[in-house]
Design a protein that fits this description.
By secondary structure, this protein is an alpha/beta fold. The chain is 47% helix and 14% strand. The protein is built from three helices and three strands. It has helices spanning 5-15, 30-39, 50-64; strands at 20-23, 43-46, 69-71. Strands 2-1-3 form a three-stranded parallel sheet, with helices on both faces.
Length: 76
Amino acid sequence: MARAIADQFAETLALAGVKRIYGIVGDNVNGLTDALRRQGEIDWIHVRHEEVAAFAAGAEAHLTGQLAVCAGSCGP
């Protein structure tokens, strides 16, 4: 059975060491959030605004020195 691109993307992020993704669910991000749910390795942290997701990921990267990710369907 063919795998979805979202599943491959989630696997690649996990292999890169991503522990959590900050973002808003909906629209074209639904495939990724579903892939993350099935995978079970990366936590999805829901925020109320895509700009907050970017700030949260930036702060995490700054404090930990590791890769941090934000996701959104559109942004500022």
